[in-house]
Amino acid sequence: MPEVPDHLREGLRVLFVGYNPSLRSAETGHHYANPSNRFYKLLHLAGLTPRLYRPEEDAALLELGFGFTNIVARPTKAADEITKDEYEQGRVELRHKIETYRPYAVCFVGKGVYEQYSGRRNVAWGFQPEPVVAGVREFVAPSSSGLVRMKVEEMAAIFRQLGEALAASGAPRTIALKEQERDEGGR
Question: The pTM is what?
Fold first, then answer.
């Protein structure tokens, strides 16, 4: 199956990191494309996006300052099919992406994703006290998979903490705004 392309650029407000693409995401070429996945609904309910986006619009979220990648690139039916070696390789590659692009925050969509990346266990929801990459805030959110039994409202409340931190940080709401501010400051 083909890999789902990352959506990365410098100046991201948030880099969202999933486990790996679903088979549906691999078929369509878009992140969080499984019809049972609640990712885009959660972003909207949490106030991170001004409207409800569809999976085929994932690249458009770059303009809002949101990027996408996964800790493992290989699509599978379920995350439990990911091997230890794939996680080890993915951890190294993900850290390199974070160090290269330096987003304001990295949102790990699932505690297990963060645990695989950081090597830490029993982490809490929300911002983590000691980031793996200094200067980049790490946020742990629930997996948006339809298999997760947590109520959507509870999940959205956790994602909302990320939005509140972004608003309080003064991080530009869009990449275009950040580029405009940079250009005006350079004159």
Answer: 0.90
